[in-house]
Amino acid sequence: MNLRKNFLWGGATAANQYEGGYLEGGKGLTINDVEMGAEHGKKREIHDSIQNDAYYPSHEGTDFYHRYKEDISMFAEMGFKSFRLSISWARIFPNGDDLIPNEAGLQFYDDVFDELLKYGIEPIVTLHHFELPLNLVTKYGAWRNRQLVELSVRYAKTVMERYKNKVKYWITFNEINALFISSAPWHMAGILYKEDENRHNTMLQAAHHQLIASALTVIEGKKINPDFQFGCMLLYPCTYAATCNPEDQITVRNKLLSTYYFGDVQVRGKYTNTCSSYIDSLDGSIDFELGDEAILAKGTVDYISFSYYFSGIEGVGEDIEMAEGNLSSGGKNPYLDMTEWGWQIDPIGLRNSLNSLYDRYQVPLFIVENGIGALDEVKNDGSIEDDYRIDYLRQHISAMVDAVEKDFVDLIGYTVWGPIDIVSAGTGEMRKRYGFIYVDKDDQGHGTLNRSKKKSFDWYKKVIETNGNYVK
């Protein structure tokens, strides 16, 4: 079994890290627009409103809003078959609860999709990628509130109806399980916990509201265009037992409970024993409304998309040293190297992850985020020799190909995270670069925003031209 002939090679981004134009074209404020940039290694500070003397990275991103034609042209030069991007809810409904959509926002994405389709690039659209309109936080309490289900479905129906002939692949919520994994629920659900709040119940209820919203989006989307393909999106924390101690195997299962929780509900259409086990472990509870079970059963997804960057170990031993990763952490593995940001590099873990997900769910998979953040040095002649990025991606793509050719995993595509440099979601920094395309901007927001190719640009072009054979 080889990669599909129409395998969706490409790249992935998010509006809050890339788009910019934060108040242009009638767009409203989002939760990202009140997050300051942070110094290296520190968390970002959140404000109630815009402070005049502060730097907010999302306001400009790396300016896709004004430069989308230039960027898409460069993606096309690399041979992209697909491009994953998110729609900013606040660009369509500035306050999130408006009755009439913002035509300028709708037209912007029309123009972007037209530009992509001009080059034969398939748009992969994420409806919710950590971009909640700020008004929904201050007025409703964010995803704590059941009213966001109705509001989010109104937004989803509006854009699906508008782009029904331009977009086929949709992702409802980016890394939806990160609400359970991450210590930053602000990004995932616009939530800052109150001192007297039962955090576990709030987290479980907010997740339930998102799951209901996702299912209703699928149901309504299929009415608009039966050919739509909907995916859930999971942060997949590939995890190994620290030792052969049977107790360590249980810790691995417990680590993955919060990931399979969302996969089970969105693929199987119900809260399974895995979900019940996780809820019980938190001594938590969820309030269901009449009809919720039927909604979840009907609104299942067609494929699973996921992000993969690193792996970790888990065990009962007290001597396990922890390592950071994408919105989560795991124990250090002595067999693995690490990135400059302390993320463990495990290409075989991608193959293991593909097999784990496919064995469990038996639906097509889509790798929509994978890449390495690194410090790129611009030489005097303007060149950037990012062999470390090429090496990282070569190994991971090779492992991906093995999962398809040797293990017969059904895989739709592969989109590299950050095909062009964008600001970091965690800190707002620019120094942590993922792209094949360099953007002249620094951590304080200074720079020309000019684009230039890195060495990896031509390498990835060859990978796509050969449908992955170039990595062998």
Automatic annotation (TrEMBL):
Keyword terms: Glycosidase, Hydrolase
InterPro entries in UniProt: GH (IPR017853), GH_1_N_CS (IPR033132), Glyco_hydro_1 (IPR001360), Glyco_hydro_1_AS (IPR018120)
Pfam families, per the entry: Glyco_hydro_1
Gene3D superfamilies the UniProt entry points to: Glycosidases
SUPFAM superfamilies (UniProt xref): (Trans)glycosidases
Protein name as it appears in the record: 6-phospho-beta-glucosidase
Active site, per annotation: 369
Family: Belongs to the glycosyl hydrolase 1 family.
Gene Ontology biological-process annotations: carbohydrate catabolic process
